[in-house]
Each structure stands twice: as structure tokens, then as C-alpha cells.
Amino acid sequence: MKSRLYSLSVKFGSLAAAMMAVFSVISVKTACMWLTYQPEEPEEIRALKKR
What we know:
The protein is an all-alpha fold. The chain has helices at 2-29, 43-46.
């Protein structure tokens, strides 16, 4: 049972990380929404923005 839960957490953990990476790129390229508001953009996110 423990190994099965570990296997599922590894699969869904990598999926969640990929989804958050995509979400951060999309949020950088769009206007600021209230739900995802940050006072300042982190340098790592700013590097993803295409100029």
C-alpha cells in the first residue's frame, strides 16, 4: 500500500510541477489578475518572458 501511494505521489507530483511551470509562463505573458497578483515579479519568472 505504501509503495502504491508513493508511486501515485511521484506521478502526480511531476504533473503538478509541470502545470505550475506552464501557469507561471502564462501569467507572465498576460495582464495581472487579482487571484495571482504579486507585487513584484521574481527574476526567474521575468527571464521566461519573450521580448
